[in-house]
Every structure is written in structure tokens, then in C-alpha cells.
Amino acid sequence: MSTTVATPDPGEACVYCGSRIFDHDPICVRDCDDDCGSPAYFCNYACLSAHIDDGDLTTGDACAWSPDDGDRC
């Protein structure tokens, strides 16, 4: 899977809060399970985390593990 790296526009807004990403500590996220579509830009990890929590994006995306299990994921 290949993708092109490009610097976003100086006025690019955070997809979560709408702030300009370069006024903060920007993060670029791509969904590479769906052909590495357009990137989503977040102004910081707090907005990315809030976006994940609000969308319940971690549900069902991790293996189940118990300390009593002999196997790991």
C-alpha cells in the first residue's frame, strides 16, 4: 500500500474542533483499511482522543486478553 505525503495548507482546520492545526501540535490520520483515503488533521492529541471517544472507534477493534489465558492476541 503506498500513499503520498504532502504538507497541508497553512490554514487547515482540525476536523474535531475547527482550530488551525499549525497553531498547535498537528497530527495526520489516515484510514488505510479503506485504500488510504484523504487524511484527517487534528490540532493535537486531545482532539484526536476526543474524536475517538465520541465516535466509539475503539469498540471491537482490540483482541480480548485475560491474565489467565495462555495465548496472546
Provide keyphrases for this structure.
single chain; 73 residues; little secondary structure; 2 strands; elongated
Main beta sheet: 2 strands, antiparallel
How many strand segments?
A: 2
Global structural class: little secondary structure
Strand order of the largest sheet: 1-2
Count helical runs.
1
In short:
By secondary structure, the protein is low in regular secondary structure. The protein has one helix at residues 45-54, and strands at 27-29, 40-42.
Please characterize this protein's 3D structure.
With 73 residues, the chain is mostly loops. It has a domain at 21-55. Helices cover 14% and strands 8% of the residues. It contains 1 helix and 2 strands, in the order ββα. It has one helix at residues 45-54; strands at residues 27-29, 40-42. A two-stranded antiparallel ribbon has the order 1-2. The longest helix is centred in the C-terminal third of the chain and has 10 residues, at 45-54. The two termini are 24 Å apart. 8% of the residues are buried.
